[in-house]
Amino acid sequence: MCGVTLLRAAAKNHARVTVLSDPEDYPDFLQELSKGEIAEKSRQLYALKVSFTTASETNPLTQNRIQAFEHTASYDDAISGFFRKKYAADGTQQLSLRYGTNPHQKPASVFVKEGQLPIKVLCGAPGYVNLLDSLNAWPLVKELKKALNMPAAASFKHVSPAGAAVGVRMSKQEQEVCMVDDIKGLEQSALAQAYARARGSDRVSSYGDVIALSDEVDEVTARVISREVSDGIIAPAFSAKALEILSKKKGGKYLVLQVDEGYEPQGNETRTVYGMNLQQQRNDIQISPKDTFNTVVTPNDSTGLPAHASRDLTVATIALKYTQSNSVCYALNGQVIGLGAGQQSRIHCTRLAGAKADNWWMRNHARARNIKWKPGVKRADKTNAIDLLCSDQVPRQGMEKDEYEKLFEEVPAEFSAEERTDWMEELQKQDVVLASDAFFPFIDNVQRATRSGVKYIAAPMGSQADDAVIQACEAAKPPICYVDQKTRLFHH
């Protein structure tokens, strides 16, 4: 028996030295030694350490093993972990979390083995899912800002964006749809408009979100956030007034994370699943309007995409890069308007995202924007009631009907089938874009997209149905411009 230094030295010289790092190896070693000598193959294997013994008598070395250096590395890891917990658990290198994915999963922590944590807690206490959302949402807005040179925002729930947007100036109608038309100074803050758009993409799903913002949070943006039900925020900086406003949310328990804007993770990433380590190169593909969407497949005579289409496809595609797959995204005016995430079939993604886009468009109708509410109705209740009205789910009997109608001074009339058809025809006049994280296996995705005003599609090719998909785009009225985006963007 010896210390870790001698073990390392012996393992390095395994061509001439047999190294035994675990008593579990002794019987096999003695059995082979009794036959005369230790074979070269055995010395190579004895330079490995048994992780757990499952060998049979006839095949004692066919077992799960790790390098002897792993044995000594585990010792080093234990020592460094002890010191990290003892001296750097104040957020320098490690931070305790409230619990893991669920409350019974304790303890939980976040840590780095080199350098310092690139996040700093300014208020509140993070949980495991808060960080999963934060650490997916932050690179999304960082990449959007880099690609489009505009402030960007994302609203995350359960490790997928409910919405994402850049700071395109909002019209009065868009402000009403996003419930921010009463915010003073909104026009002067592109960041506030970006978050209003991101939250307004799907206000029902954004309830209790984690927010990511690409720029320093200003007072106007903080005031927008202060009225919404949200679990936390991550951004590179906060003005003094913004931090004061946000620190009062949730009785002072609102999670405020400051992220190091210059931090770049290592090229490889590792996760542990069922006791096994999976490692891959980080998905560091760069999406940009200039380089990603320049392969127009149809129409053949295209001279390139208009600027608004490139912008919106960039928003949709970067959003998909951080969305649980399969995923499809509709976008317009610099924001997500419908996102279908985590479905096993692509057509269900397209239908789900399309239904959300249609709902978003119905929320633009004057009837949905001019509802007469009773005093004191909460924003979340308004959001849910508008969703019921716009998605044709208005309750017609019983307690649910009573709860719905008590919100209004004047109960809004339901949309008739003809009214819906007429208003959806107006969506056909919009230049909606659609992005997909992988190829379309059938033309039904294109056919569904046309119903929601899609004029541009960007997706990788490689399906046996590529030709049929292109023909479906060309047959659409009006024809759909199809861009080969070239890169699959699965995210899990």
Topology diagram in text:
Elements: H1 4-12, H2 26-33, H3 40-46, E1 48-50, E2 65-67, H4 68-87, E3 94-97, E4 108-111, E5 119-123, H5 128-148, E6 152-157, E7 160-166, H6 172-177, H7 190-201, E8 209-213, H8 219-226, E9 230-235, H9 240-246, E10 255-259, E11 268-273, E12 276-281, E13 296-298, H10 307-321, E14 327-332, E15 335-341, H11 346-362, H12 366-369, E16 372-373, H13 379-390, H14 398-405, E17 408-410, H15 417-427, E18 432-436, H16 444-450, E19 454-459, H17 466-475, E20 481-484
Parallel strand pairs: 8-9, 9-10, 18-19, 19-20
Antiparallel strand pairs: 1-2, 3-4, 5-10, 6-7, 6-8, 11-12, 13-20, 14-15, 14-18, 16-17
Core attributes:
six-stranded mixed beta sheet, 17 helices, alpha+beta, globular, 492 residues
How would you sum up this structure, described in words?
The protein is of the alpha+beta class. Strands 5-10-9-8-6-7 form a six-stranded mixed β-sheet. Helix 5 runs antiparallel to helix 10, helix 7 runs parallel beside helix 8 and helix 8 runs parallel beside helix 9. It is globular and about 95 Å long. The two termini are 44 Å apart. About 4% of the residues have low confidence. One of its GO terms (biological process) is 'de novo' IMP biosynthetic process. It catalyses: IMP + H2O = 5-formamido-1-(5-phospho-D-ribosyl)imidazole-4-carboxamide; (6R)-10-formyltetrahydrofolate + 5-amino-1-(5-phospho-beta-D-ribosyl)imidazole-4-carboxamide = 5-formamido-1-(5-phospho-D-ribosyl)imidazole-4-carboxamide + (6S)-5,6,7,8-tetrahydrofolate.
